[in-house]
């Protein structure tokens, strides 16, 4: 059962944490490379602001973005802005998302996201939480996968293993973290089964394309190569 109100509160906490951390940067740091190939920190901050507005569109029944090209153009347009402008935009867009989330609504309804993906409206706050937490890590300013809230890590592993379940390029794979929690994914490829184990943060990093999985333990074959998100 998804508790959208709980997730909205978690988004608010994560957004405040990111804003406080980013406030110690300067204009030069905004133009430096992030951990995402081809993106500066300014690209990430711009993306987070525009993603908040895009999810407002989703919750209000509009297209998430006008087009993929428009999405990319908006990020490029906003990436080079000074830090104070970036932070004000991120703060204001986060507030708009929270305001829409607080309005009475049918949270069981289906909504359409990018690329024709359909999901429950109740899951949109968690999707925003994912954006804020992982991109905070991507900024490369001292917030690491190990710093993510434990609840978030477990739920995002749930989400990603579900996403890759049955994928034709991923062998049947069982995951176990160091606390004994278990997940399964893949199953569409002929090879396998593969068993993967390690710290939850590293499992998440591998699934989310943030780490290469080199510290993970594998049995039954090499660590599967996952398709891009």
Structure description:
The protein is of the alpha+beta class and 229 residues long. Helix content is 49%, strand content 10%. The protein has helices at residues 4-22, 27-30, 41-59, 68-79, 83-102, 124-138, 150-164, 200-207; strands at 110-112, 118-120, 173-177, 182-185, 194-198, 217-219. The chain has a 4-stranded mixed sheet. β3 and β4 (182-185) form a beta hairpin.
Quickly give the structural class. alpha+beta
Give the neighbour order of strands across the main sheet: 4-3-5-6
Radius of gyration: 18 Å
Q: What is the CA–CA distance across the termini?
A: 25 Å
Which percent range fits the helix content? 40-55%
Number of strands: 6
The pLDDT mean sits at 97
The gross shape turns out to be: globular
User: Which sheet architecture does the biggest sheet show?
Assistant: 4 strands, mixed
What tags apply to this protein structure?
two-stranded antiparallel ribbon, 229 residues, globular, alpha+beta, four-stranded mixed sheet
Per-chain topology:
Elements: H1 4-22, H2 27-30, H3 41-59, H4 68-79, H5 83-102, E1 110-112, E2 118-120, H6 124-138, H7 150-164, E3 173-177, E4 182-185, E5 194-198, H8 200-207, E6 217-219
Parallel strand pairs: 3-5
Antiparallel strand pairs: 1-2, 3-4, 5-6
Helix pairs in contact: 1-5, 1-6, 3-4, 3-5, 3-6, 7-8
